[in-house]
Each structure stands twice: as structure tokens, then as C-alpha cells.
Amino acid sequence: MSFLSLLVDVGTTIEEATGFLQYLLVFVFAAIPVIEILVVIPIAIGLGLDPVLTGVVAFAGNVLSVYALVVFYRRVANWLRRRRGETSEQSDRYARARRLWDRYGLPGLAVGGPVLAGVHVAALVALLAGSRSRIVAVWMTAGILVWTVVLVAASAYGVSVLGIA
User: Which segments cross the bilayer (predicted)?
Assistant: First the structure.
């Protein structure tokens, strides 16, 4: 499945739902690492959903999934280590997030991570680098909040300029 077909599927799924279910889908899609807020907010606002409510719901879905990762990362990391053995192959997303961490630390990773590697990968890199869980949660929340506001504003402005919804 290509990324473009994933975008179409997300849009179609939200569009075919009605009312509360649309916002529930925004919440769920925002929590999924590949989709996240960068995809779901512009699609939902482009489909005519309320920008502020979309932003709040997407923010909540994304943040809560990151909090779950922060809470359970030790268990997951130990499980993966046992499953794979001690060697693990690094993905391109992980490598980008690690370079961001090496250059800018946790604040840079929290702000740049959602765009460059995905917020879940960014949080995982910060945790694996030894940052305390609470600090990672605070910085990732701040980064997600910044990107949510930017995406909602840009999407609402784009929709109004283009006259889409």
C-alpha cells in the first residue's frame, strides 16, 4: 500500500462516517504512528470538520498514544530485545530522529520530530537516549501542541482560500 493510497483511505473513511464517528476516527488516526496529526488534521478540515474540534481531538489522540509509548517503552524495548536478540536494524525514520537528537537534544526532537520522523519515533529516540519519561512526555506534548496549532491554522486558511469546504 502506497502512502498516497493510505491518504485516500483515511479521507474516504472519515468522509463516509457521520457526526461523532468522524471525530472518533480523527482521534484514532491521530494516534496511529504512520498517519498522526500531519495527515489527519488537513484531511479532516478539508472535508469540512470543525477546525478547532478537529485540532483538539487530533491532539488528544496523538498525545495519548505518545503517553502510552512513554509509559510502556521499557516493557516494549525489553520484549523487542529478547525477540530480535541484541542486534536491531535501524530504520531511516529512526536514523533521522537520532541525528536530530544528536544535534538539538530533546527540545529539537520534540519540535522537529513530528515532521521529520514522526512523534512516536522521536519519543522513542529520546527515551532510548536516556531522557526521563516525564520530561519526554512534557516536551513531546509541547511539540505536538505547536504542530497542531500550525496545522489547524494552515489547513483552515487553505480551505478558506481555496473554497473547498
Answer: 20-45, 51-73, 106-130, 136-164
C-alpha span between 100 and 72 (Å, rounded): 23
In whole angstroms, what is the distance from residue 143 CA to residue 140 CA?
5
**Cα 55 from Cα 153, distance rounded (Å):** 9
pLDDT in tens, 65-108: 999 999 998 787 778 778 877 555 567 777 777 777 777 888 88
For 40-66, the pLDDT digits (tens) are: 999 999 999 999 999 999 999 999 999
H/E run at residue 20: helix 20-31
As for how many domains the chain has, the answer is 1
Sign of CA dihedral 48, 53, 59, 61: negative
Its domain, for residue 113, covers 3-162
Cα 124–chain centre separation: 12
Q: Whole-structure pTM over 0.90, yes or no?
A: no
